Amino acid sequence: VIPSCLVTSCQIPRNMWAFSESNANVALAKDAKLYHSTFRIFSIPIFYLPYLQHSVTSVGRETGFLIPTIGRSSQRGTVLGESFYWAINRSMDTTFGGEYMSKRGWAETGEFRIRPSQDSFLNTNIFAVQDRGIGQPPVSQSGQDIRWNGELLLPHQVRTVADIEYLSSFVFRLAFAQTFSQAVNSEVRSNAFITKTQNGSFYNLRVSRDQNFQSANRGDLITLVRAPSVDLDGVERSLGSTPLHWSYDVALEGVSRREPDLVTDPIVGRADIYPRLSLPLQWRGWSFRPEVGLRDTYYTQSLLPDSGLGALSSASVNREALETSFELRPPPVSRIFDHTVFGHTLKHTI
User: Fold this and answer.
1) How many Å separate Cα 254 from the centre of its chain?
2) Which H or E element spans position 35?
3) In the chain, N or C: fewer CB atoms in 10 Å?
4) Using an 8 Å Cβ cutoff, are 97 and 86 in contact?
5) Which residue, among 234, 248, 300, 244, has the nearest Cα to 271 in the 3D structure?
């Protein structure tokens, strides 16, 4: 037992924050229990805690209740919240809690994290509100925002990545977003893919969904889906023993688009082939690189022009394009200065 101690993770004596004027019961390599402590920032008392437990293990994680939250908002009223942290094992933990908002209702939060290996992880975040409604008559703005983010490295250097988000309604985000940047973000994007890289070639299997909310009205959004999508890409490489270089992009996709005035088939076939040929040339520091590419894109459904957004047709459409470009780079001009600045040599390149 240590009476009248100072507890902080900052360097003494220049500590920014500390728990002071407390009695501590310290168990080596386990935890420190603080009684009747005052949290201070730059020696200014902020709030009083009758009891606090802090882990002093090498891992630094311990199961227990977190510091309660209390606040006041013109939109939510008095806010009271509490969360519980569970250190399941060395590679897995979770946090779940709730808030009571006197003007709106209950909110639930949850986070689950797992890292089974150095090259894989999965994070899950949940935020939901059961809203009593606002206005007369009350209009409920209840909803959920759930996000999954993970990565897994499979055998033979096959990489799997997922970043998936589900938002029940844009009205819910506008009403209960925690920050301004979240409130004005009208896009919800979800992507998952499996990729393999071998000898300068990239093989990808991907599914994605993009939602763009046009307004706060329910159903006023544009949804773009690519599922499934197979992509084959190749970096630029020499064409045999010739000075030419070639590269390619190939995509075979099932796409769809949904918006209030336009709904395509559930799966519209799309095939895109884009081979390119270039000739890099060098002469006395100058580089000249002309390139030519032929792109062919085929859709199983087409859009016919009319007075509105267009009329959908079951007729296919094929688009061909010849693309040319060139790049000219002069030799760089550089100078290394004799004088150093703070022990560092300066080099200026144009």
Assistant:
1) 24
2) strand 31-41
3) C
4) no
5) 300
